[in-house]
Amino acid sequence: MTGIDHDTAVEDLRDHLAAQLTRARRRSTALTGAVDDHDLVRQHSELMSPLVWDLAHIGNQEELWLVRDVGGREPVRQDIDELYDAFKHARAARPELPLLGPAEARGYVGEVRDKVLDVLAASPLEGRRLLDRGFAFGMIVQHEQQHDETMLATHQLRVGPPVLDAPPPPRGGPVGPAEVLVPAGPFTMGTSTEAWALDNERPAHRASTGAFHIDTTPVTNAAYAEFIADGGYRDPRWWSEAGWAHVRAASLVAPRFWAREGDRWFRTAFGVTAPVVPDQPVVHVCYHEAEAYAKWAGKRLPTEVEWEKAARFDPATGRSRRYPWGDEEPTGLHANLGQRHLSPAPVGAYPAGASPLGVHQLIGDVWEWTSSDFRGYVGFEVFPYAEYSQVFFGPDYKVLRGGSFGTDEAVARSTFRNWDYPIRRQIFAGFRCARDAEPGESA
Ligand SMILES: [Fe+2]
């Protein structure tokens, strides 16, 4: 590369990073601007922070990494670091903290952002691993977008008239056979080349599976309703010991936000109650419910390795794609992402997003529970800090894949790993099933 080409490439990267930061902020502003100050400071659920905490926390992380670390600038508000450290205060305790009020929080994140754009304009975007291809800025964009999904979940838990609006998702369509056979063998899992991939997605490595079948689509509301109607929630045969204990203790009878009226199920989403849409993926089920349904259906949940293979492996070339449809960035034709719609789309709504083997809607719509615990890949290295993922490794958390309608495309790579407790239902999570191939069935 010549000096001029290099300068142009750095300038293009700066423009890209600035645009991504602005896009994330537009969403944070919309989510926090949709409600009044009272709703911003109050806690809508013990599971969530007040929205005003998320907002100032977004600014605080941005200040720590981009203003102070990357920029080497003076702190903006060192005095509030402790309040917005997610490890210092449980979500349930956050409303009692002396938090910045709505106007103060907005002023703070704006001041930080101004300094960050200044830092970006001056940064060489090289010379340190943290700066390589704009990683630190990308990490902060993803952090804000992930909190935007969390804030969307807070909106879903908020009780009151609707304040968010979006067009309905596209219509469903044909998806072919109910299951797809994935051949046995190795494939490349994880990544060492995605610029913004987080430490837990790295490094790229060979992983292997036996031959297995995976559902062509996520499990739909109609299918899930059959499990309920068949007494699934009352039959210990389908549940693990921990799942059965939980379903009894929490008195679960249906997905969260479902209610029965007469012989029909209704679902409340963002303040609107409507009949459950049969061909949309089920959402707001916990790991235990997903696991019980799969057993009832004579199947099981896919492992994380199986999920990623179904999403990325191209049998024609033997290589792993960035996305099920190929290497190009998602558009509205590929997947239901980015809060473009406020619900999962019916199955078959994204034929252009299918994988080479014909698996639909792996990216977007609903996070998909896998049977895998959250652990580091072989060769895992903490970067840039242990609290990002390493402290969560172990048997307490299950991995979710693929992103939801609330996840931004800056996050929803097919290598991206999310994790949560197996009892959590406020996240936009559903699932699909898998099963071992019969001997001799391997493609
Ligand atoms: Fe955070």
UniProtKB/TrEMBL annotation:
EC primary class: oxidoreductase
Domain DinB-like: 20-151
Sequence ranges assigned to domain Sulfatase-modifying factor enzyme-like in this UniProt record: 177-435
Entry's EC annotation: 1.14.99.50
UniProt xrefs under InterPro entries: CTDL_fold, DinB-like, DinB/YfiT-like, EgtB, EgtB_Actinobacteria, Sulfatase_Mod_Factor_Kinase, SUMF_dom, SUMF_sf
Pathway: Amino-acid biosynthesis; ergothioneine biosynthesis
GO terms of molecular function: gamma-glutamyl hercynylcysteine sulfoxide synthase activity; iron ion binding
Reaction equations catalysed: gamma-L-glutamyl-L-cysteine + hercynine + O2 = gamma-L-glutamyl-hercynylcysteine S-oxide + H2O
Residues annotated to bind gamma-L-glutamyl-L-cysteine: 91-94, 420, 424
Positions bound to Fe cation: 57, 143, 147
Keywords annotated in UniProt: Iron, Metal-binding, Monooxygenase, Oxidoreductase
Keyword Protein transport listed: no
Cofactor(s) it depends on: Fe(2+)
HAMAP family hit by this protein: EgtB
Family assignment from sequence similarity: Belongs to the EgtB family.
Function summary: Catalyzes the oxidative sulfurization of hercynine (N-alpha,N-alpha,N-alpha-trimethyl-L-histidine) into hercynyl-gamma-L-glutamyl-L-cysteine sulfoxide, a step in the biosynthesis pathway of ergothioneine.
This protein's name: Hercynine oxygenase
Originating species: Saccharothrix australiensis
Gene: egtB
